[in-house]
Amino acid sequence: MSYYEILLFLHVATAIVWLGGGALLQTLVFRADRTSDPVLMKKLAESSKWLAQRFFIPSSLAVLVFGILLTIEGPWSFGDLWIVLGLGGYAASFFTGILFLEPEGKRIDAAITAHGPDSREARHHVRRINVVQRVELTILFLVVVAMSLKPTGDDTGTLLLIAAVLVAAALLGARALARPLDMPGTPQVQAD
After folding, report:
1. Residues 78 and 153 sit within 8 Å (Cβ to Cβ)
2. What's the CA gap between 178 and 155, in Å, rounded?
3. pTM (2 decimals)?
């Protein structure tokens, strides 16, 4: 087994952990959303914060480090389109976490403390964070598509498919944010 193969395994394994965890968390959020149980939602919010520090951040950093080492060790270039797409998706996730998810989680905590877990303000912030997390997860799965298919500038169909899925996710997210808060299926409490 070569050094490159070890790096490839570690890169793929940590990506599976990171994205699998994100998909599981969104599944639990979806389930909790349907129960309208404020206690369950509060517990899920607390677990999300714990997981961010101990699971999501370390696994995402490992994916990045192993990916960079793979690019250096392998026959790839940081100028390859699929690597640029992967790094762009990673950057989008990183900055979403720092600039939106972290502050929004604090706003959720503040709203719950001030007004309760079922308040309109808490539900508003919960909806925002859940929609953004779902779009972010879509972006990360699109990175997996780019990493797997390794499109070049000549792969118009693949690039159009990636763009179409990204646009659809953004439009569905905007639609979810525009829905009135009192509609069934509106999340009550969840934080990152």
Report:
1. no
2. 35
3. 0.86
Question: Which residue has tokens 């979806």?
Answer: 30
Q: How far is Cα 47 from Cα 45, in angstroms, rounded to an integer?
A: 5
**Which residues contact residue 74 at a Cβ distance below 8 angstroms, ignoring those fewer than 6 apart?**
4
**Domain ranges (residues) in the chain:** 3-178
Cβ atoms 192, 104 nearer than 8 A: yes
Q: Residues 70-119: pLDDT tens digits? A: 999 999 999 999 999 999 999 999 999 999 988 998 898 888 889 987 78
Direct distance between the N- and C-terminal alpha carbons of the chain, in angstroms, rounded to an integer: 39
- Tokens describing residue 174: 């905007």
- Identify the DSSP state of 189: -
* Helix or strand (DSSP H, E) at 89: helix 81-96
